[in-house]
Amino acid sequence: MDKISTMSLLKELGLAPQKRFGQNFLISNSVSERITKIVIEDQSELIYEIGAGLGALSEFLVKSDKTIKLVEIDHGLAYYLAHHFATFDNVEVIDKDILKVQFPGQKLSIVSNLPYYITTSIIEKVILENDEIVNFVFMVQQELSERLFAETKSKQYGPLTILLELTGMLKLVMNVDQSAFFPVPNINSSVYVYRPKAHQLDTVGFYRFVKALFLMRRKTIANNLNTIVGNKELTAKILLASSIPDNKRPEEIEPEQYVTLYSNYENIKTV
Ligand code: SAM
């Protein structure tokens, strides 16, 4: 898809890019090809595309012999995709909000040019609800990139950084100039690939715990932990067992220390 064909397709469909759905369509075939190649060539048999739009990435995916699920919240676009790819037996269009889609419990890869307004929620959902991701390839606006790799003590460091660091490996695939989209967004984007790594974490419980500890970033870890535990003595005991000084702020604590903290919280809260 180039700019002219994207614009004329939208016109033909009687549609306009919807800001509320974060619709910035990719108009560079070389970028689409490079992104999709990763999931087409991996060992998954099932690929989900989140927010298929006008099919810039889907066009490459459908030609593979894998099962392709195209999820799209915009009914007009979903209707178009279903017709456009009707002759492909391996393709299913899911006309739904991705946050309401349940992934099957099997090996799969996920690819997305993520809608910027819910980037974090989608990344969280994909990681927390899939035990068998082969590759999760996603494009985000560069603003968010800082959060993905944030160092402790930085403003960007938070639950998402910790979750990514502990559960997988994140690698930059490429940077994409803003001119590769229509309409042109205000900032450039980057593509990353996330691959899970072996760990012992109960990710859902752990993530809920860490998010609660970051609710008030300016308060000390003791204050935040006590909000969850509801008992100052127990809170002090959990922190002591975890070798974390009670005056530390949430952003000063390393990912591995959160693992220890969670484990001590789980053990001590019920004693
Ligand atoms: N994949 C297309 C491309 O690269 O040109 C479109 C990418 S555009 C940045 C994001 C797409 O996600 C839009 O088509 C938008 O309608 C869709 N979208 C937004 N929110 C969604 C949601 N909650 N669930 C599913 N799709 C969503």
Which outline best applies?
elongated
The level of helicity is: 40-55%
Instruction: Give the distinct bound molecules.
Output: S-adenosylmethionine
The share of residues in extended strands comes to 15-25%
Count of discrete alpha- or pi-helical segments spanning 4 or more residues: 11
Write down the overall mean pLDDT: 96
Radius of gyration: 21 Å
Low-confidence stretches: none
**Strands across the major sheet, in which order?**
4-3-2-5-6-9-7
Series of H and E elements: HEHEHEHEEHEHHEEEHHHH
Q: Separation of termini?
A: 60 Å
Total E-strand runs: 9
Written description of the protein model:
It is built from eleven helices and nine strands. Helix 9 packs across helix 10 and helix 10 packs across helix 11. The strands form two sheets. The chain has a seven-stranded mixed sheet with strand order 4-3-2-5-6-9-7, sandwiched between helices. The chain is an alpha/beta fold and 271 residues long. Helices cover 40% and strands 19% of the residues. It binds S-adenosylmethionine.
Annotate the secondary structure layout.
Layout (H helix, E strand, L loop, with lengths): L2 H11 L11 E2 L2 H12 L5 E5 L7 H4 L5 E6 L2 H10 L6 E5 L12 E6 L5 H11 L3 E9 H7 L10 H9 E9 L4 E2 L6 E8 L6 H11 L7 H9 L2 H10 L13 H15 L2
Parallel strand pairs: 2-3, 2-5, 3-4, 5-6
Antiparallel strand pairs: 1-8, 6-9, 7-9
Helix pairs in contact: 9-10, 10-11
